[in-house]
Design goal:
Largest sheet: none
Structural class: mainly alpha
Helix content: over 70%
Strand content: under 5%
Number of helices: 10
Number of strands: 0
Distance between the termini: 66 Å
Length: 186
C-alpha cells in the first residue's frame, strides 16, 4: 500500500482534528488515541504520522472548537445585519436551550472543555487557546454597561448545571432562569 498523497494526508489530519474536537467536547480529553482514530476512520498508527503527541492534538482540537464558535458568532451578526443585541439574544436563546444542553459534541467549548483544561489542559498552548477563546466569547457578549464576563459566567454556569441535572425538572428551570436574567430589560 502506497503512501497517502499530501492532499490526502491533509484531509486525514482535518478529519482527525474535527472528530477530536467533537469527542473532546462530548467525552473529555481523556478519550484514547485509538478511539479518536477509529472515529476518524483511520488506524491508530496513522496518528503518529500526523501529530507529535496527543497533547498536540488536544491543542489543535481546542483551537478548532473555538474557531467554530467564532464563526457562529460572526454568522449570527451577519444574520441580524450587524445588530449586536439581536445576535446576542439569539445566541443566549440557543445556548440556554435543551438542544444545546443535550448536544455537547457540537456545543460550546467553554463549557465542554473547562474542567479538562483546568485539570490537564494539554499544556500551556491549549490553556492559552482556551483563555483567548473565553476572552473572545466574553467580548462578543459585552454590552454597554457590562464587559461580557459576567454574562459568559451566567451562560456557562447555567449550561453546566443544567447538564449535570438533566432528567430532572430543575435542569430546565436553570436554563429558563438564566435566560430570563440575561434578557431582562434594564
Amino acid at each position: 500500500m502506497g503512501r497517502a498523497s499530501q492532499a490526502q494526508a491533509e484531509e486525514n489530519r482535518r478529519r482527525v482534528v474535527e472528530n477530536a474536537s467533537r469527542l473532546f467536547r462530548e467525552q473529555g480529553t481523556q478519550v484514547s488515541v485509538a478511539d479518536l482514530m477509529k472515529a476518524a476512520g483511520l488506524t491508530h498508527g496513522a496518528f503518529y504520522k500526523q501529530f507529535a503527541s496527543k497533547e498536540a492534538l488536544v491543542d489543535e482540537a481546542i483551537a478548532h472548537a473555538f474557531a467554530e464558535l467564532a464563526q457562529r458568532h460572526a454568522a449570527g451578526l451577519e444574520r441580524y445585519d450587524g445588530q449586536r443585541d439581536a445576535a446576542q439574544r439569539a445566541l443566549i436563546d440557543t445556548y440556554l436551550s435543551v438542544e444545546h444542553r443535550d448536544a455537547p459534541a457540537d456545543g460550546c467549548p467553554v463549557a465542554a472543555l473547562a474542567t479538562d483544561v483546568a485539570r490537564e489542559g494539554g499544556g500551556q498552548e491549549a490553556r492559552g487557546v482556551y483563555t483567548e477563546g473565553v476572552a473572545d466569547f466574553a467580548g462578543f457578549l459585552a454590552v454597554d454597561d457590562q464587559d461580557g464576563i459576567a454574562r459568559l459566567c451566567t451562560l456557562f454556569g447555567a449550561l453546566v448545571l443544567s447538564r449535570a441535572t438533566a432528567g430532572f425538572p430543575i435542569s430546565e428551570e436553570i436554563l429558563t432562569a438564566a435566560r430570563a436574567a440575561l434578557t431582562a430589560p434594564d
